[in-house]
User: Fold this.
Amino acid sequence: MPKKYKRVLLKLSGEALMGSQPYGIDPDVVEQVAREIKAVIEDGTELAVVIGGGNIYRGVAASASGMERASADYMGMLATVLNALALQNNLEKMGVSTRVQSAIEMKELAEPYIRRRAVRHLEKKRVVIFAAGTGNPYFTTDTAAALRAMEIGAEVIIKATKVDGVYSADPMVDKKAKMYDELSYLEVLQRGLKVMDATAISLCMDNDLPIVVFSLRQSGNIRKVVQGRKVGTIVRGKR
Assistant:
């Protein structure tokens, strides 16, 4: 019998919210994500979300173009807040109680991030969306996901992306790229695989927190992963 997770952290990339658009937020994709999160909550699982901002603004890319890295990263953090508010709006229209907690204080829009308050929201079956990454430049939202997952006591990070798992190379470019069913943290680091950045993988390895990478494009996948069914690629300790 597959293991059903009791508390999970969903990492949503900003790019996943674009759908087929070149940038921005696809309302149909956000609605689909909200619908799937609602199903997970109704199953009794506690769920938190860390959301990226790459569909609106990517700090690393702007830094490479000549902008000062810290300023570029702060702008990227603000982009994650836009995505968080869009997801919150869709969830609450469906009757799912939701709180946005921001690592950068903006009290008119979101609660400040307070770990104990976040855990209490989860215990009350509210969805908690963590925005603005860690609140620090030079750290990605992947690292924020690993950090928040450990702070709230999540059993797993489930990472929703545009592809259906972790591949040996970019499957959009290399048709011979192989998809892995399971990897260890060290294999990910040694092979330089694009699961999460090295800081996030190291944090998960040090705390033995598994990561499941799967496609958001297949409807129902979030619920399947939470139910412990075989979807995508799992990254965990020694195989």
Notes: Helices lie at 27-42, 59-64, 69-93, 115-123, 141-152, 185-191, 198-206, 221-226. The chain has one domain: 7-236. The chain is about 40% helix and 20% strand. The first helix runs from residue 27 to 42.
